[in-house]
Amino acid sequence: MIDEMRRPGVQEAGLGVSAESVAVLGRAAATCVGIIAIVVGLVCAVKVFNEVYASMLAPESLQPTFVKWTEVVGGDSLKVEVDGVTYNAARPTAILVFVVEQLVLAWIAMGIMFVGARVVSQVGAAGKRPGPEYYRQRTFPPPVPDGATTSRSDPT
């Protein structure tokens, strides 16, 4: 009975799990995490762009937001004097804060998608097929020192 359990690739502990199947499960789990990160980043990006689009269609919908931000950045006390004319700078500052917020949120969403794509790419490269680094080196070989000769064959 014990001899039947000793197959090539099976651990001696009798668990019936080979190292290759654990590696395949690990790669599958990492791929799922990468895909989840891509989807989360995509949802975040869609929400940001939807908010910007909605504000372009109905700018009055942002009126309460700008009023609150105007109070936060200084309200009526935030004034700028140019050539003897006093301007209230709280409203433009509130708009600037809103724009920067949207840019940062979009940047974070794109970063999440990039990380997810990178995870999926690296998991694919961890298998037996060549990864992106192999193709980059093949397409753009390292520079050749002066006086050395080389052929443009496979770098491996």
Percent in helix: 55-70%
Q: Number of DSSP strands? A: 2
- Return Rg in Å: 28 Å
| SSE topology string | HHHEEHH
Task: Write a structural description.
By secondary structure, the protein is mainly alpha-helical. It has a domain at about 20-125. It is built from five helices and two strands, in the order H-H-H-E-E-H-H. It has a two-stranded antiparallel ribbon with strand order 1-2. Helix 3 packs across helix 4. The longest helix is centred in the first third of the chain and has 39 residues, at about 20-55.
Q: How are the secondary structure elements laid out?
A:
Elements: H1 2-5, H2 19-57, H3 63-73, E1 79-82, E2 85-88, H4 90-125, H5 132-139
Keywords, please?
single chain; 156 residues; mainly alpha; two-stranded antiparallel sheet; 63% helix; elongated
Summarize the structure.
The protein has helices spanning 2-5, 19-57, 63-73, 90-125, 132-139; strands at 79-82, 85-88. The chain is mainly alpha-helical and 156 residues long.
